[in-house]
What we know:
By secondary structure, this protein is of the alpha/beta class. The protein has 2 domains: 2-20 and 65-144, no CATH class; 147-271, no CATH class. The chain is built from 8 helices and 10 strands. Strands 4-2-5-10 form a 4-stranded mixed beta sheet. A 4-stranded mixed beta sheet has the order 6-9-7-8, sandwiched between helices. The protein starts with a strand and ends with a strand. 39% of the residues are buried.
Amino acid sequence: MREIEADLIRQTIKNLFLQANFVLSPDVIKAFEKAKDAEESPVGRDIFKRLLENAALAKEHRIPICQDTGLAIIFVELGREVHVKGGELAASLEEGVRQAYDEGYLRKSVCHPLTRKNTADNTPAIVHVEVVPGDRLKLVAMPKGGGSENMSRLFMLTPSAGWAGVKEKVVQTVEEAGPNPCPPIIVGVVLGGSFELAAREVKKVLLRPIGQPNPDPEAAALEAELLEAVNNTGIGPQGLGGRITALAVNLKIMPCHIASLPLAVNIQCHASRHAEAVL
């Protein structure tokens, strides 16, 4: 059994949320640069130039990439041989989020759904824990903005809808979103599972590096088909028209009930923020 101090977990989560909000990962920067060269619209090319400048300034001055510093999503892979010492895992994660949003002057966006009273510290976080073999603890911090989350959808299709129906719903979701999720977007798609499983897994799909295709050739081909269809909408960067509406479509296919065809579509804005650490 390996012991990991609760205070180390708190400090790690704090640092991860600060890092995620201040620094875009290399795959996102590379995608911006590639899209800037591929975009046909002069306005669109200028937008990519400004996105790159914004990312550079945020990194240099340690300021948020976007004013919406997100709902705190945390994915935890907890090794069976790990024992958290000196505190509870959940409490350590919450405190790390609380300190990051306070000390980093990050916008606190969590409130009561009806009264809209702010919790004032961006907690509670949304935490997904998976128990895995081994003696390591993997933490992934994912600040998720409200604009893109609002445009995400979950469909319970009938099996007769088939691939054509799935493709129609994905494109429809992007078209209805228009400029609201701050394109260029990353589109997460999960096909199969169940109502709740599809919704959970689609968030994880967004963590795959941009430009890394699905390892399953069949799924990779479907991803490419969806990306082409989404970019043919002409919504373009920031919704002002152009070729690059999405930087990527990441698809996961899972088995499902014979009577069902669950489809989850989770849209991520161009500021695809996440950071991870293994303890």
